[in-house]
Amino acid sequence: MAQLFPFRAYRYNPAKNDPANVLTQPYDKISPEMQTRYAAASPYNLVTVEKGQAHSNDSATNNVYTRAAQALNGWIAADVLVQDPAPAFYAYFQEYKVPGTSERPVRKGLITLGRVVDYADGIVFRHEQTLSGPKADRLELLRHTRAHTGQLFMLYDDPSREVDRILEISAAGPTAMKLEDEYGVVHSIWRIERGEAISAIQAAMADKKLVIADGHHRYETALAYRNEQRARKGTSDVNAPYEKVMMTLVNSHSDGLTILPTHRVVSGLQNFDLRALRQRLSEYFEIRDVPLPADSSRRAATAREQLSQAGSSRRAIGLFAGGDQLNLLILKPGANLASTLPDSTPSQRELDVVLLHSLILGKRLGITAEAVRQEQNIRYEREAAAAMDAVSAGRAQACFLLNPVHVEQVMSMALADDVLPQKSTDFYPKMLSGITIYRLE
Q: DSSP assignment of 203-252, as one string?
């Protein structure tokens, strides 16, 4: 049973702050340039808490974590952050432009507290593995601030769209907050306080399973912190604040759900030879030569269109190694992937990204899994144009273009306790940090 709880969120005081100057992208998307820009936008910008800047003279008593806690406490004392008067759920809508298109969908989410449960309980499921470094960082921050500032992005399966209808009714009223971020995404939230609406949402979600779309490290941090507190107190109090975590739930059947592909850019390979690679790939792939226009943006658009068309009926990957053509790799119908990729599960072998990493990068280009983890010969690009430009400019030897993973694949694999490779999914857009804050009082 997925247990959801309304809560009294802390939010930025609109009388003292322009939301556009204080909210940030998620911590793992904040570059050094963004850190500097956020810090200059306002002394109350959440970057001080979400991802503070380290100093050369940091110590055990003065560091990014202690400064984050001091800032959060100070902002609450000064009414920069104020707590909502009554427990509520929050409708969270994001209107955005899908990159590379003219579409402007709206993704509709529900901000709530959810009970922190072990994966073994069969309620919350992951779709990718986590790394120890980010979890250690987030855990240390949580120990000091005792607050969740970022949204866990969770998917659930509801073809009847019962909760979506409640969110849409709530969104007919005045917003509690609205802003446009640096990527042109319009973020809006509405408070849901009516008892009947809260009860209806809780009842509709009671039998749902939750799949982590974004925020695996933060969820496992909440698990670790819960376990620490249970051990420290020597008891398990189901009503304790650390038994809950803030999350945004999105229906997997939502019209506004977009997953973008993440393309791979390859460099630093000795004796890279396109003709030899094509020959080695011909055992498994039919290779089509697609002429490309000279203009960079039109070239990328043509590559995406051709890849999408090929991928609608067959497994397809784009290979660009410079010049004026795309090498379209289309998996042959008789390819025996079970014997070729015995270490992958049947579901994993259905993913283009697994074909790319295991069959092409690993078996045909000799890039080891460890090299991929260390990003020694590979880096990642969301935009096809940027990936192709790197090749044309001589900064890379080749790039591989992918179609996006389907949400049905993410859901089915996660619910079967299977995992996707790192950077298989890019749920777009990201949810802002600080739009609501859950303080463990």
A: HHHTT--EEEEE-HHHHHHHHHHHHHHHHHHTS--TTSGGGEEEEEEEET
